[in-house]
Amino acid sequence: MTKPKNLQETIRLIPEKWVSNGFTIGHHQDKTVFVTGGIPGKEDEFIIEKKNSQIIYARASQNQSKPNSNFESETKSNSDCEAFPVCGGCSYRHIPYEEEIRIKKQELLSSLRLDPSTPIEIITGKSTHYRNNVQWKVSGQKIGFHSRFSNQVVDLRSIGCKNLDPLLEFPTSSKSLNQRVSNGKVVDYTNSVTELSLKDKKFQIPPKGFQQINTTLIPDWILYIQDTISKYSRSNKKMDCLELFCGSGIIGQSVSENINTLFGIEAVNQSITYARKNASINHLEKFTYKALDLYKPLSNSHISKYPLWILNPPRSGAGNEVVNLWKEHLPGVVVYSSCDSQTLARDWKMVQSKTYEYKLESLCMIDFFPRTKHFEVVAVFVKKDFQEIAQE
Fold it and tell me: Is the pLDDT confidence value at 65 over 90?
């Protein structure tokens, strides 16, 4: 007998431990099961979302104790959101935030293959209503986000999203699906400039341009990078800086008090246009920018003049070409800000395969994305002879 189409296939198992990307892992009939909404050591029933001959992806079958008619009822979890884990946005809504941070820290150490005792600075902020932009999904009368492994829209109209800035609203016929908070106002960031103020600097981000979604933690992120650069400035002299994946120039210009000259590279022409505009607004005449694809070979012989490199690549990481430049020019200090610890680890492994002249000097985890599987990492790599000179 076949199951009715509306009856979801379930399995019962005990998740064994936390693994990367917000999953717990278990096993069922010789298959590996990655579970969203599971608790290690707690037996439960889970709904299969996706499977093949070796792997199953599943989620907790019941949500929270205040059921909503749009979602499954009679929860066993402690989730603070009725849409979890049906909605694909979050991974950790069913556990205390402090436990989430512990799990993410362990994932970072594991990705970089570091000893559990390795010191990591942790920067956190509020765990709700932190996100300053949204891309709503619409299907018929439903407005919300996609469920995992599906284009089906989870309707959030009756409960909202706990991650979003309260200024961000559900779209009506007059409101955009793509919203961002810009200096206290909501704009359609696909066709409007976003404005951002940091310390004494002002920035404009082009339509569709990238900006960190958690603006409440950007000042702490920038301060950590600035303190790092100050530490390695020789005899308090300003350093020449190469900024790769520079976007609209926010990082380099925000730490400009420690920088003499800066050359920024970014693939998106419009971002480079705004990086130049921001440098002009912030009176940084020695900051120059160029549009180049950093995933293709570069022929910039003058790159070796920069003892300080700042990298802020997308989740795909810096990649082979940038790593090859790194190994060729051997800058004194590399500040690598990553939103994916696994691609950071991959790039660092490629550097180590060719040179052992660097030390991972410090590591900071900034939780830009509470309750989700993502987090930001700033890793500071220092060339050993440069470190010795800086300490003289």
Answer: no
Confidence (pLDDT) at 1: 37
CA distance 217 to 367: 8
In a domain, 15, yes or no: no
Total-model pTM: 0.91
Q: Which amino acid is at 92?
A: Y
Contact by Cβ (8 Å): 177, 171: yes
**pLDDT tens for residues 257-296?**
999 999 999 999 999 999 999 999 999 999 999 999 999 9
Please state the domain count of the chain.
2
Least confident of 2-16, 126-140, 346-360: 2-16
Provide the pLDDT for residue 75: 33
Give the pLDDT mean for 232-248: 87
* HSE, side-chain direction, 13 A CA sphere, residue 286: 12
Residues 289 and 350 both lie in one domain: yes
- Answer yes or no: do 252 and 182 share one domain: no
Q: Is residue 2 part of a domain?
A: no
Q: Give the count of beta carbons closer than 10 Å to the beta carbon of residue 203.
A: 23
Neighbours of 73 (CB within 10 A): 13
